[in-house]
# Entry
Amino acid sequence: MSGSARPTAPRAIVIGSGIGGLTAAVALHQRGWRTTVLERAQSLEPVGAGISLAPNGQRALDVIGLGDGIRELAAWQGGGGLRNPRGRWLNRVDSAAFVQRFGGPLVVIHRATLIDLIASGLPAGVVRTASPAELIDPGVPGGQPAVVAVGDDRIEAELVVAADGIHSSARQTLFPAHPAPAYSGFTTWRMLVPALEQPQEPHETWGPGMLWGTQPLKDGSLYAYAAALAPRGERADDESAELLRRFGGWHEPVPQIIDATSPGGVLRSDVHHLIDPLPTFHRGRTALLGDAAHAMTPMLGQGGNQAVEDAVVLAHHLAPNGDLGASLAAYSADRQPRTTAIVRKASRVARAQSLSSAPAVTVREALLGLVARLGPRVALRAGDGILDWRPPQRTYADQASHG
# Structure
């Protein structure tokens, strides 16, 4: 054993154990950082039912060695697409055409499954639950460390990654004058139900100011979600009954799925988005990622995908002994323009889905039908520039595909 002491790896504190925070912790750990994840909840039980991982998110997870395992969970085979409440297909897309264009499948999985897969890449003791954290001082690159408070304890770190969600207190500390996330006008419901007797093709259904989505999972169960225009904060005593009131007259399997759902099995939440972009995603020694940096409506299914992109790009720039200030600036320069564009695109899709008058809905359906007649390549073009993203570093998946 050498008589000289090994230099101590720099410390990174990650606030929040959601998908983005855990991915950042694994990616930084693999880069040589000593990571600690602080989570206010009592356990890693994830909030939410299912999550859609697009090819861009899968390629981000390739960086930490998980992409292929995610792809194996893909359930979509064959057709799918967009319908109206009467059940008529407005356009259809084949899974093979999707894979050919974007280089991977669309994978819908239990959120808990994804959390477990990512957390398995961390050593024991890295994640500290029941540890509500507050950013006290963002620190100064090349100078004083960042400081995070957990109760009466003060923890110093060379880096803080704030992945504390849409109502991020760290974002408020870094950018106190910036507008808070705005209510989008939509409330959403999410649920998981057992397999129905008849297999279901994945679909979204757009109605007047409302939408429904049904997505099969690998185990045969279904992830379903719905959205509707509603006053902020509105809730029902029985959310299953509320869904039946709003969607019970729609095509099958929508009523069947609602009937298979227990009141306690429906998660409801209002949708907020950070439509006013932050000027940068870092201050001092602290970086924001995921919803804390760029909360968006779920209409493109990109919230979680952008969080894992953030995480691996951040780690890519952060060599343990590199210039921290320059590295964080490079992270912001990479991520802020891309995520701002996606937030705005998701907002435009939400506006299209919010149309509620009969004439406007008729025009919308006619335009969607026109796109369908132009062929699947045109329908898939909406994903260009988003789903075809690749991480800045080569991964094992790149090496396998190129021999």
Summary: Residues 1-6 have pLDDT under 50 and may be disordered.
